[in-house]
Design brief:
Arc Repressor Mutant, subunit A, 135 residues, two-stranded antiparallel sheet, single chain, 2 strands, mainly alpha
């Protein structure tokens, strides 16, 4: 079962953090079709948010067609978000974890790693890196 985390300092509304965590769990294979999400009461107890926050998150997920609320039973996963299968995410996640370890071993701090990732994403993931080939 998924365990939620809500960071009040992140600037992202708590309901959206819950939505994002469900999507991520579906992409990573932590949650699958047919799995039940924690009840509103369980989420409220675990992360100290207003019940309406959890309800809003679950309604958003329902509108996306990812979950279904069943009266008296709970909320269940109907589908995964579009994209590659969970195994792909897991494999790439392991590869990224190795890369992050290598970057830290080379002396990069989290801010440097985030900057490098951001620049690479903005470059479209091309193999060339900013500054390469400049004499």
């Amino acid at each position: 079962m998924i365990g939620f985390r809500v960071d009040g300092r992140s600037g992202v509304p708590p309901y959206l953090q819950i939505v994002q965590q469900v999507r991520q769990a579906l992409r990573m294979g932590v949650l699958g079709v047919g799995d039940q999400l924690p009840t509103v009461r369980e989420v409220v107890a675990a992360v100290a948010v207003n019940p309406n926050t959890v309800l809003k998150a679950y309604r958003d997920l329902e509108r996306e067609g990812l979950v279904e609320a069943r009266a008296g039973q709970g909320t269940f996963v109907l589908a995964r978000p579009a994209g590659p299968p969970p195994g792909t995410h897991s494999r790439l996640g392991r590869s990224l974890a190795r890369w992050v370890h290598e970057a830290r071993s080379a002396g990069l701090d989290d801010e440097s790693i985030e900057s490098l990732l951001r620049v690479t994403l903005q470059a479209g993931g091309s193999t060339g890196f900013l500054g390469e080939g400049i004499a």
